[in-house]
Amino acid sequence: MTSFGTAVRPALSERLRRETSAQHERMHSLMAKGNPFASRESYAGFVAAQYLFQRDIEHLFADNDVRTAVPDLEVRGRQAASLADLADLQSPVPLDTLASSGVCMPEALGWLYVSEGSTLGAAFLFKEAQAQLGLSAEFGARNLAAYPQGRAQAWRNFVASLDSDLLAADSHDAVIAGAHAAYERFAQLLERFFKLRVVPC
């Protein structure tokens, strides 16, 4: 509380962390069930999910409002890296409709939050891909490698964009809704490519 008795509004990044924690834990559970590092074939399923999700994410980069909100978009996104990894693994490029079609600001920031958070957290996955499957940032595991400026700095820059005063407080709920939608999309992709559920024909 302030000295005038007015509640301090939590930062958007803090709200996102708190209000999507259940979805974040769901991702950990799906990854454990999918066991992507059991074999290169299993890992290729993860990369296929990653490719489609990153295609959804990079579709948002063309939005001028998104580019204004996150000025360093050119260093983000892993669609090309995922595509190259699929080629390395001799795995087919999956087809799907674009899930982020029609998504715009401010919901788009929620989608980016999920993608950027996964990049930050991919350090462990990258080590596993190296140790268990013999992959690297030059072969098969490009999509898990750090951005050139490093994971921590890239994340700090993104959080600064989220918590900027340029983003109206009354748009925060929409950003969080976007994050929920993005988590659900990625969960569905993991379930599909890890074969954890039956996909209708």
Automatic annotation (TrEMBL):
Pfam families: Heme_oxygenase. Signal peptide: none annotated. CDD domains: HemeO-bac. Gene3D superfamilies: Heme oxygenase-like. SUPFAM superfamilies: Heme oxygenase-like. It comes from the Bacteria. This is Heme oxygenase. It comes from Variovorax ginsengisoli. The lineage of its organism: Bacteria, Pseudomonadati, Pseudomonadota, Betaproteobacteria, Burkholderiales.
